[in-house]
Fold this sequence. Notes:
- The structure is a homodimer of 223-residue chains.
- Chain A has 223 residues and is mostly helical.
- Chain A folds into two domains: 9-71, Winged helix-like DNA-binding domain superfamily/Winged helix DNA-binding domain (Arc Repressor Mutant, subunit A, Orthogonal Bundle), CATH 1.10.10.10; 76-209, Four Helix Bundle (Hemerythrin (Met), subunit A).
- In chain A, 68% of the residues lie in helices and 3% in strands.
- Chain A is built from nine helices and three strands; from the N terminus they run αβααββαααααα.
- Chain A has helices at 9-23, 34-41, 45-57, 76-100, 103-119, 124-134, 138-159, 166-181, 185-209, and strands at residues 31-32, 61-62, 69-71.
- A three-stranded antiparallel beta sheet of chain A has the order 1-3-2.
- In chain A, a hairpin with a 6-residue loop joins strand 2 and strand 3 (69-71).
- The model of chain A is unreliable at 1-5 and 212-223 (pLDDT under 50).
- Chains A and B meet through helix 3, helix 4 and helix 7 of A and helix 3, helix 4 and helix 7 of B.
- Chain A binds a DNA duplex (30 and 30 nucleotides) through helix 3.
Amino acid sequence: MPEREQSTLVDRVTSKIFEMLLSGEIPLGGPVNEAALAELLSVSRGPVREAVKQLQGRGLVVKEPYLKARAVALTVPDMVEIFQLREAVEGMSVRLATQRMSDAELDDLLAAFSDAKQRGDGVALDVHVRIAEGSGNARVRALLCDELYYLLRLYRARSGKAPGRREDAFAEHWQILRAMKARDADLAESLMRTHIGRATQSLQALLETEAPPLGGTEERKTG
Amino acid sequence: MPEREQSTLVDRVTSKIFEMLLSGEIPLGGPVNEAALAELLSVSRGPVREAVKQLQGRGLVVKEPYLKARAVALTVPDMVEIFQLREAVEGMSVRLATQRMSDAELDDLLAAFSDAKQRGDGVALDVHVRIAEGSGNARVRALLCDELYYLLRLYRARSGKAPGRREDAFAEHWQILRAMKARDADLAESLMRTHIGRATQSLQALLETEAPPLGGTEERKTG
DNA sequence: GGTCGAAAAAGTGTCAACACTTTTGCCGGA
DNA sequence: TCCGGCAAAAGTGTTGACACTTTTTCGACC
């Protein structure tokens, strides 16, 4: 459960609350009660407050002064916004990575991808992470891997594995990697944007068919 | 000094610390001492802690557990990273705005821009804000206007007005607005990216000539 | 004189209590 | 019966004190 030994209580509390969001223990759009969480986790309200503030910074919790904090609703329009942002930033990420990764790093990435392809492993997201790390731009990496990533995980955990277009994704990733290997930054960026744009479109299609958002079961006490 | 009556103490403290960063009272790369700030501002350490955490979320302060927090160094390479991110996100911003803003809104924006041009007013940044608001994407707007904006302000305040290419900026903004009016999203995005890419290039040029970063004067007590 | 180690100092992390704000529910009046 | 206002309850905001970690300093030993 603890991803690795986290030194400070705040980090542990943050992880725990995030898990509660993933599992649905705190319903999407539901209230996030500091006191109840503090008692549940056997800690004071201070660390809970900071953890909530941190989650607020990541966009997982919304709140205004003196009003109850609420978990993000994560409606389909929300996800469309996030995917539009990802389209732009992942495009820049792969552009920079294409220019800055060494041949050795690229070969390594291609090999790892081939292996994963063999095993049928779901490391699709890892490709995006590796590219972001290869971009050499710490802010781009942090945005994609530390902020939007959490929202994606939450959405996928609660929406029932979302698109499920595994086959397409593999092919598209492969094309992107080939463009990187060919040092064609424009092509790589274009392919990446198309890749993510496809997911955006299937979301928007979902938006028109499925009116009811995926949301939590109901207004429920957090404790 | 208070932008507007802020209800909660944490917000006021956050603003105050940000001003201290802008003015240089807290040197870039210098230590951010919770206790000293608390005494200086006549508040408890709790609000200061949360304010620092918030600034940390905005990338203005870096810190790891039990170690002194430090103001961001804001080296030229840092700014290059930020501009690369901005290039991608502002591009998406103007693309979405071109698709979603109404004719009336666009005319309004064009008129406001013309007026500002007459007065020779430095509302250049406001164009970016208006476009981000017109994008209809709350996350894009928040990233550009609430997060990167603070870093830009800080950099401009401490680096001596940065590029100073006022003439070029006006012309480039005008071109962008014309593309928007023509509903040419591809052109608008392309122009915006070139516009920001120019600033990035002048930063990178600076990087090669000016080795010493702009940094703070020296390690100094915050109180 | 230099270096390793322990104690003190500085600074961050956590806690429990108190103050303020918002919401909820009740009561009286129209 | 419905509306407005008042009081209790719930929940957030703030505080000062205590615990833990890191850094610095001082002294003993080599």
